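Posting for a labmate who doesn't have an account.
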Amino acid sequence: MNLRVICKSKIHHGTVTGADPTYVGSIGIDRHLMDLTNIVPGEQVAVWNVTNGKRIETYAIPLPAMSCQIVVNGAAARHFQKGDCVIVAAFAVTDEAVTPRMIQIDQNNQLIRDLGSHDPDVESSAGPETFRALHDDRTPTGSASR
């Protein structure tokens, strides 16, 4: 057996919509984005702040689906602020092949494209027009421009 740590999930270039140092840890992520990338509640994730270079590890908690929210909580909120660009990744320790589920999102945390996972669930939502069509009846909450 040859165990390796393999990237299994990635949300590329999300925008932090809030940072709450008084909340007890974690990163809250729009449930739809978690589902598209196969990140489950409580799963350990790495969060890389593209804006300032800070990196943390925490666990993911779901926020309302289609809310377009990414909120950093607890002590990590001291290193992240509303508007920061982030990458969220999750890894698996395995000796089997992994097809990662990776997506790129825009500054409003809406899906731009699948980054090669070739997953039918992601592909059916791919493209800003398709993803935005799912949001027609809602105004994004907590979105911030970069």
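Reply:
Got it, the structure tokens are right above this. The radius of gyration is 15 Å.
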